[in-house]
Design a protein that fits this description.
By secondary structure, the protein is of the alpha/beta class. It has helices at residues 2-22, 37-52, 70-78, 111-131, 171-179, 192-197, 208-213, 239-242, 247-281, 292-311, 316-338, and strands spanning 24-30, 57-62, 84-88, 134-149, 165-167, 185-187, 203-206, 222-238, 285-287.
Length: 339
């Protein structure tokens, strides 16, 4: 009888311990506003995860940057106040420098080139982040960043007369701007709108969809039609915390959240195209550099890329891989155009 009682007790304790190990609520911060497509999609994914795991895995989101800047959020993840965040690519620089390769200045000419590179390179970024202890569920397009300003910018020399914003502690962004002869003004993303309203800054490089979502577009009169860099975002979760749920639940989370971010990725492409048109409809004047001006933009972009390459912050192998992929798609495009 004592033996049966002991076995029953052991089974109950073991069961409770297993439930405790597998059950987890992930607290996730994001600058995405509540009610945005990002929040809607992530919440729907979280609801499906809760359903498929019978409530063992839950997500609690903190939208609109209420948990602080992305740098602050990453610190909170390290001390387990948060377990993850949906962040822009720039904040990942200190974790996996190669994650910044897509945002090299004037690297891409169009979305065909972006899609060709991403089809081969996204997984390398995801794997690289995991090796640093961050689980990513896929990359979602932020779009091309364009110069938006209070005064017109047509030629690169115009930039030196502007007060240009750069994200705080983004070394690559600072190096790029300095290659263009600019001394940037660093601000946290949450302070940009106030900075524009008070004329601390008058120019930013931002995607159309982000400019509208963050209400920055209300402060501008001009948009320069040069794709300065490519932006993406991702949701990351601390790997140590992720490993506290069972392997089967990990698979459910990955499958559902990867699908969520794939959907966001596709929708953001069209949303950015629509936002680009909407900005013009709302009064922003589109400036289209021509001839020698365009050549100078891309020349200085090459100078900035070379400066970054010399620092060695992005690995030589990644640089070689991306250059090779770009050559492939450009040769293909030239052949197609010739025919």
């Amino acid at each position: 009888m004592k033996r049966i009682y002991f076995l029953l007790t052991f089974m109950i304790v073991s069961s409770l311990t297993t439930i405790n190990i597998q059950a987890k609520t992930f607290k996730i911060s994001t600058t995405a506003p509540n009610g945005s497509n990002w929040m809607k999609q992530m919440k729907e994914g979280a609801s499906e995860i809760k359903k498929q795991t019978n409530g063992r895995v839950k997500f609690k989101f903190y939208p609109g940057g209420v948990m602080g800047s992305e740098e602050v959020v990453m610190k909170k993840i390290r001390i387990n106040q948060l377990q993850g965040a949906a962040v822009s690519h720039g904040v990942l620089e200190n974790f996996y420098p190669d994650s910044q390769i897509y945002s090299l200045p004037l690297l891409f000419r169009n979305f065909k080139e972006v899609d060709h590179i991403r089809s081969s390179f996204d997984e390398k970024i995801i794997d690289g982040l995991e090796k640093t202890g961050l689980i990513s569920f896929g990359l979602s397009e932020g779009g091309f960043a364009y110069a938006m300003s209070k005064l017109p910018i047509s030629e690169t020399k115009d930039l030196t007369e502007h007060k240009v914003w750069t994200p705080t502690n983004n070394k690559q962004a600072e190096l790029i701007l300095k290659s263009f002869g600019i001394n940037p003004i660093p601000l946290n993303i949450g302070d940009v709108l106030t900075g524009l309203q008070t004329n601390i800054i008058d120019t930013v490089a931002v995607s159309p969809i982000a400019a509208i979502a963050l209400q920055w577009h209300t402060q501008f009169k001009y948009l320069t039609d040069i794709p300065l860099s490519y932006i993406y975002a991702t949701m990351i979760v601390d790997k140590k915390q992720f490993n506290k749920i069972s392997k089967s639940d990990q698979k459910i989370v990955k499958d559902i959240m990867r699908n969520v971010f794939s959907n966001i990725d596709k929708k953001n492409r069209q949303d950015n195209i629509n936002a680009f048109k909407a900005l013009q409809n709302q009064g922003l004047e589109l400036i289209k550099p021509k001839g020698p001006s365009i050549a100078e933009w891309f020349r200085l972009g090459g100078v900035a890329r070379n400066s970054i390459e010399k620092t060695g912050t992005i690995s030589e192998q990644s640089m070689i891989t991306v250059k090779k992929l770009l050559e492939e798609i450009r040769i293909t495009n030239e052949i197609t155009s010739a025919n």
